[in-house]
Design brief:
Layout lengths: L10 H10 L5 H7 L18 H17 L5 E7 L5 H15 L3 E5 L7 H8 L16 H12 L4 E7 L8 E8 L3 E6 L23 H14 L3 H4 L4 E7 L5 H16 L5 H13 L3 H5 L5 E5 L5 E5 L5
Parallel strand pairs: 1-5, 1-6, 2-5, 6-7
Antiparallel strand pairs: 3-4, 7-8
Helix pairs in contact: 3-4, 9-10
């Protein structure tokens, strides 16, 4: 990534974000990150990533770890599949390691049930997806893990490998998580319950079917069990697609990349079903208006274009 590459986000947007984070001198803050002695691990970024991802998203998150040492803080990161949040997470961990900052990224997807239980939890969904829906995660394990982490104990987080079982995925071990700042990422992190599942979808073709609507209602009920996890979040950041249809492109690109690197991925009707699920399982208006503290607009090309502090004071 080019530190001085093109940036679309207005400087005023970035200034308001830094002010929210307690950074009152943006120029000094910027200089603090470009010292020759600082290794930001820029090679970990996707080569097509714009500098906005670094200056307006990545470094502000690292600044939380830098400014509040030895304080347990949980940041939620919500974004539709394929937009780049996993790549961001990998870079955050690389940069934090290089800089000696106590930060780790965990995905709600790593808390999927093991294969057999995962298959049972997803049985009968109208999209035929093997995972990703509310109800596919071991919430007891996630809540217990976060509770122990809050108490200062070193925790073990599961790993989930989506390439296993011909792209259906399975658990693939555990890793120690001991950081003071944890970032919890996932496509519906922070999504509320209590909405009307019957609401109409603008631009969804074909329209929501009867079987999809029935499962929508079930999904809304299941989402209620996720709310205690969301209340643990100290802040919620969202990468909000300016076009809710973007997952059709992003998810296909993501699976193509996994097939190239791992030799296995979702494809054909399975991939079509997954994309349809993302577009219809939860009303797009609910996903687009998750009550986040910090919202980044992401265009179909994955460029960040604006920042909104919708709940930040």
């Amino acid at each position: 990534m080019d530190l001085d590459g093109r940036q679309l986000i207005p400087r005023e947007d970035q200034r308001k974000l830094l002010d929210f984070l307690g950074i009152d001198d943006p120029d000094q803050w910027r200089r603090s990150w470009i010292s020759p002695s600082i290794n930001l691990g820029l090679d970990a970024w996707h080569p097509n990533s714009s500098a906005d991802w670094l200056w307006s998203l990545g470094l502000p998150i690292l600044s939380l770890a830098r400014s509040q040492p030895a304080r347990k803080e949980l940041i939620g990161l919500s974004a539709l599949p394929g937009c780049g949040k996993s790549s961001l997470g990998q870079w955050l961990e690389t940069a934090a390691h290089n800089l000696g900052l106590s930060l780790q990224v965990i995905s709600i997807d790593d808390f999927y049930f093991p294969a057999d239980q995962l298959e049972r939890s997803m049985k009968g969904n109208p999209w035929g997806v093997p995972r990703a829906l509310p109800g596919s995660h071991d919430l007891q394990l996630l809540q217990r893990t976060l509770e122990l982490w809050r108490k200062g104990q070193s925790i073990q987080c599961p790993r989930f490998d989506k390439a296993l079982r011909n792209g259906r995925g399975d658990r693939s071990g555990w890793r120690a998580c001991h950081a003071d700042l944890l970032v919890l990422e996932g496509w519906f992190v922070g999504c509320p319950a209590g909405y009307e599942a019957e609401r109409k979808e603008e631009g969804l073709e074909p329209p929501v079917t009867a079987s999809e609507l029935a499962y929508r209602k079930q999904t809304e009920e299941i989402l209620r069990s996720y709310q205690p996890v969301w209340t643990e979040l100290d802040q919620l950041w969202q990468l909000r697609a300016t076009d809710h249809q973007s997952p059709q492109l992003w998810k296909r690109q993501q699976e193509d990349a996994m097939r190239t690197t791992r030799g296995s991925s979702l494809n054909g009707s399975e991939l079509d079903g997954f994309i349809r699920m993302i577009l219809s399982a939860i009303p797009s208006e609910i996903i687009q208006n998750i009550p986040a503290d910090v919202v980044f607009e992401v265009d179909p090309g994955r460029d960040l274009t604006r920042i909104h502090l919708s709940r930040a004071s």
